[in-house]
Amino acid sequence: MMAKNKEPRPPSYAVSVVGLSGTEKDKGNCGVGKSCLCNRFVRSKADEYYPEHTSVLSTIDFGGRVVNNDHFLYWGDVTQSGEDGIECRIHVIEQTEFIDDQTFLPHRSTNLQPYIKRAAASKLQSAEKLMYICTDQLGLEQDFEQKQMPEGKLNIDGFLLCIDVSQGCNRKFDDQLKFVNNLYIQLSKSKKPIIIAATKCDECVDHYLREVQAFASNKKNLVVVETSARFNVNVETCFTALVQMMDKTRGKPKIIPYLDAYKTQRQLVVTATDKFEKLVQTVRDYHATWKTVSNKLKNHPDYEEYINLEGTKKAKNTFSKHIEQLKQEHIRKRKEEYINALPRALNTLLSNLDEIELLSWSEALKVMEKRPDFQSCFVVLEKTPWDETDHIDKVNDRRIPFDLLSTLEAEKVYQNHVQHLISEKRRVEMKEKFKKTLEKIQFISPGQPWEEVICFVVEDEAFKYITDADSKEVYGRHQREIVEKAKEEFQEMLFEHSELFYDLDLNATPSTDKMSEIHAVLSEEPRYKALQKLAPDRESLLLKHIGFVYHPTKETCLSGQNCMDIKVEELLANSLLQLDHGRSNFYHDSANIDKINLFILGKDGLAQELANEIRTQSTDDEYALDGKIYELDLRPVDAKSPYLLTQLWTSAFKPHGCFCVFNSIESLTFIGECIAKIRAEASQIRRDKYMANLSFTLILANQRDSVSKNLPILRHQGQQLANKLQCPFVDVPAGTYPRKFNEAQIKQALRGVLEAVKHNFDVVSPVPTIKDLSEADLRIVMCAMCGDPFSVDLILSPFLDSHSCSAAQAGHNNSLMLDKIIGEKRRRIQITILSYHSSIGVRKDELVHGYILVYSAKRKASMGMLRAFLSEVQDTIPVQLVAVTDSQADFFENEAIKELMTEGEHIATEITAKFTALYSLSQYHRQTEVFTLFFSDVLEKKNMIESSYMSDSTRESTHTSEDVFPRSPRGGSLDYNYPDSEDDAEGPPPYSPIGDDVRLLPAPSDRSKYRLDLEGNEYPIHSTPVNCHDHERNHKVPPPIKPKPLVPRTNVKKLDPNLLKTIEAGIGKNPRKQPSRVPAVPPEDTDQSDNYAEPIDTIYKHKGFADDIYAVPEDSQNRIIKVRNSIVINTQGEEENGFSDRVSKSHGERRPSKYKYKSKTLFSKAKSYYRRTHSDASDDEAFTTSKTKRKGRHRGSEEDPLLSPVETWKGGIDNPAITSDQELDDKKMKKKPHKVKEDKKPKKKTKTFNPPIRRNWESNYFGMPLQDLVTPEKPIPLFVEKCVQFIEDTGLCTEGLYRVSGNKTDQDNIQKQFDQDHNISLESMGVTVNAVAGALKAFFADLPDPLVPYSLHQELLETSKIMDKTERLHELKEIVKKFHPVNYDVFRYIITHLNRVSQQYKTNFMTADNLSICFWPTLMRPDFENREFLSTTKIHQSVIETFIQQCQFFFYNGEIVEAPNPVACQPPPSNPVQMVEPMVPLQLPPPLQPQLIQAQLPADPLGII
Which of 158, 414, 1083, 1219 could join 193 in a cystine, given CB atoms 3.0 to 4.6 angstroms apart? Predict the structure, then answer.
């Protein structure tokens, strides 16, 4: 049973390989290849194949267990699988003949038969015979695999007859063939299968092979297999064919000719080689070793296959070649890197063309070696060449090996470098030449395309030389320069026209009219026109400037880091910190001084002589003076010493004073120069603030020779220098003394030092407490413009260089404190240094006792900003103007500087202000004394200023308590640091506005016409119109007239009798008995004189104010109202004009005006803007404006009457229409009633209102009639459709939709892009929803006719008065049907859209009411100049609101919706006059709100006041 279960053993066959053998004589000096054939078959792997097998053995080897004294070798066995899968084992025996290495005869063995008979034996026996592997195995059997021949015997089953077909070594092929023939005869006797193996076919001789084939063909069933053991071709085939002959059951193998088999085998090798090489190429580090790589690859099939076919040796060789390639590639790359880096190194070391242009490469190398940067670019190696050293592995060392420079490649790089420098020099020269050519072409403007310029430069030599890219680059650089310059000049121009911008309404975007006005003024400027081709950039700069006006902060300052506020804070933070630190440790400790540190300055040994004299008079450096002992520390220094400044003031030695000794004119001059250097050094670097206050004492040394000649001159010159330096002068005492210095001189000088120290200690008090800092006697604001061409250090030097300067309280980073004696007392002055844009907020909100207004005499913009700021300053506040330039010579050498300095001085003269100049090159003008007179003036007017400020504050509180009219946007805004509108009322100019021959102001010499303030100061009495409050009610002020200078008149006429009658009537009233009610506007059907009677009755003084500047009026219910204590009281003389003295006594205190009314320069400058912007109006428009009383398209500012074209009939005493011509007055009085009656008649005729064009470009779409933009297929304009679609898709819930204004530039860009391409996608433009909404509104605003036709406005208004809601809505629905079909479709579309917007009111906060406020002016195009229209504005708005709310009812036959806002549903009152109160607080969209507020209101019919 066990035997049955055992698997059958595979059949086993023994094959004997035979062939020519014997001595060298028999077979030649090499065998026929039997051993190689056996080796390749049994051990086919390349590593196990040995091409050399010897038959010459020693006796010992022959007797070893491998040979075992036999002439045959046992090669082992091979298990082979046939095509049918049946395995068999083949034992291989090689029959040979071993030769004794001593006798070179065959060894004697147990079988003494000749080889032919021995080889044909079918049975072999040899006990314990070991398998043969290679020749090296003999004698070392234990080091190789030991395998015995099975059972020591084998039966041969077939023979493999080997015939060498190669060119034999000393062997004839015929002899071999004879031997084979005999051998074959002997083998055939055994009846065993025989196959001929033609060996060494890789070296085959063709006719030998043919003879073998012929030999085989003569024999029966004899097969020839062409083999090559070296290339492993057909080796296995010959053994397989023999086995098949032994076992007929096996498939007969196909015998392939050698060449075909060789090709197949080589293809296997090539494939395996390719795979192996790819495997090897994965190794990228040329430092890798074969051992490491082979271990990693040993299990890879491609690796194993190649090893089997080609062997490890070849594999290693292939790997070594790859590694060498990697290394050479690395060296090549490194060399390439070095060669590529060489130009940079040459540029670093040899960049000067003039130096190397004529040098050879070897000479240049020597020059390079001497360069200090040589080591950073090159490395000199100890071993060369560099590619055989380890430097190739230092990849982080980018330095170039110096020996590489000896190559031809390096020399070629050097030659190219020189040529490049030459060509680059030429190229740069030509580019600069071309740049200068462009600069000479005057017509090149900013933004001009290159294509427009190229035709003018094609013949230019430089243009022809440089490339197109270079020419475009140069032109681009030129364009950037001129564009940047043009933008800077444009920005400077905007600052120069600062008066244009200060009246902007900060609660709304600038109106179209205001922007048109700005453009009208600026368009006359060449700097405006210079950016004509860059209109969007120009508009952006303008809007950016306006944005800065809206938000004037350090962060938004257009000067960036040059903002004055930033620079001031930085300077004060550093300077005041050092100042306070120095104060606490020097003069404070000098109160009880026991030690005096003296610095002695002299020339030619004089300092040392004086020091020796003082020591002579001292005892152990102690000096007795006035009964007290002082320790002296003397430091004599020669004036010529280069270390003068460093020795003067050290941490260990701080002098209390400096003795400056001289004995000649030369030494005196030298001493003066040294003192100037010391003071300049102390002032500039501010190492210690008290360095500048170091006391100097000039001491004249006695002259032993020529006393009578030189001494008087020296005394005179010394005294002059002392006066100039403001220091003591110690003269030589009278009498004759043998020594140069006298004891009296020394004591006098020491007393001077002690007095100076005591004075400094008295002036410089200890660091004040927080309480002290907050108690400033005067608050002064110094204003300077950002970007002015002077250092902040210069304008602050009068304060910081003072020893009385200290830091302000915490939180005031831009303030400092001064302690100065003004009058008889010490005063604490807080100086706040601000930019003009920051000062605007301070001008009204905070108490300021005086302004120091600084401007650069080199910059017109600085003066423009000063004028704009000064114009709005109350004329009760003292002003000091400071012009800054380099030196006094500028005034005479530079006309522009002279003009600006003259203008500043002229303005100061006109407003009675102080004027001074600061010179950057002068130290004298930096002293605090420059402002002493100004501080004194401020102190004198302090009480008056504070009373004025308190009165203003009281009136402001009055404003807030009354809700009759909305407050000024400026006054009501807490978000900006802008001032209020100066209580919405302007003071009059100080010159006479009545006529050239009538004076209301006293001449400067008329002291009797001046009034004393609380301080006893004299000031002229100024006038204010009685009805000024009326204009305040209407947010208007009387238009000023051309300023008249304050000059005395010789022929002064009497005042107009009507005017006198008016004034006297007003004065004669009892202010306590009359009702305190003032009409908002004087009725037109009343007499002119009535305008001046009633207001006086309302004036009532508080008990607490005995003689104050202002009197705050109250009405009969003690309710504060807005009427001011302003009355016409200007007098030329009591006798002359018939005024009584009581007028001056009762009402002589004038109400503060503004400086723009006091200065002809300021007034005329501001007025010129108005004239310029209105000079382009047509004659008809001008006529209409003059005839229509209540027109005024631009509201301007509540502060600025110069920009508000208001009526002339309201002027009162400031009205230029009032003259001394009685006849003219009578004519005017007669005409007035007729005009009033006409005005009161309701105007039935609707006037077409044409808004100003807001676009600055030509368009074939926007501004076109609606009918031209639609078709029956597309009844909605494409632009409207795109905007609505965009808004509803992306921004329906945007907060403040249609209320918040979008960026105007974006709005314009949207329309411009649509103009160019109607298919533009708004989403791709990246614009905001608000910008699209603004563009949509602008579309309707630009239509020639409003969407709601003017012809239906009256019907809509009449229908709105119907009380019944249902009836009213049906009537409105019928009116809408009367719209033109095109208007109807668009109106329905836009109202439907607004209805959808209102449905999202919870998120966008835009109810139907809010939307109607924003949209009704755009849809209905109202005429804001029409007085009658103003009473119906709420009705217009309610109509649009109703359309939005009832959209479904009007257009889609829906039901009537209950309105959430009851106001919209209630019909307005029939009386238009009753609409005044709800109309005023109406909030309109920003562009239109100023016009509505500007419009004139009727007289106060409601009795509000």
Answer: 158
